[in-house]
Design brief:
This protein is an all-alpha fold.
Amino acid sequence: MPESTWVKTEDSIEKKNDAVYKWIKENRQTVFSLIAIIIASIIIVTVVIINLSKNKETAEKYFFLAQQYYGANNIDKALEQLDIIEKNFSKYPAYDFALFLKGDIYFTSGNYAKAIEEYENAKKKTKNKDLLPFAYYSIAKSYQALKDYSNAIPKMEEFIKLYPEHYLTPEVYLSLAISYENKGEKQLAKETYQKLLILYPQTTWEGLSKEALKRFETKDSKAKK
């Protein structure tokens, strides 16, 4: 590049810098105000981040306490901690897990109707979409535990349709077959066992399906005699 060009460029930069310094000098109050606003914004953002971090930790502590109370079979205290999370910490990950733990507590306590209510609430409110399959699954299993197969079967079919590749899907197929069988719909039960056999070869599910189908064959042969 010719020397004359970069010399002119340097002169141009110096003139621009002079203009900037002049503007700052003439608008000193405005500049100070802008700097104050920037500093205040940084402080506010920092405080918010710190508070968010503290609130997240607080929510996790309540969830930990709920788990400990649940493990000690102190159900009332566990539910009390989960209620605090649900009412005050809906923006944090612990909130989603608290919703599901409430359902689990009622399920393991044998209160399946209340468990369904809580799982439905979790399905509606959870922000973590990765947890949705567990809501559908838990609702279906709760209806099955109630022996309400008229509701359990559609819920299981819905799960399979929505999550055909989920790791829970083979278990749902098995539960569906058992539900059909318990409801007296033997042909649908057999078809579901056969589907499970085809979809999951060389797995535990294949073995369970074969055993179930043999049971059907034994029953059918006895019925013919």
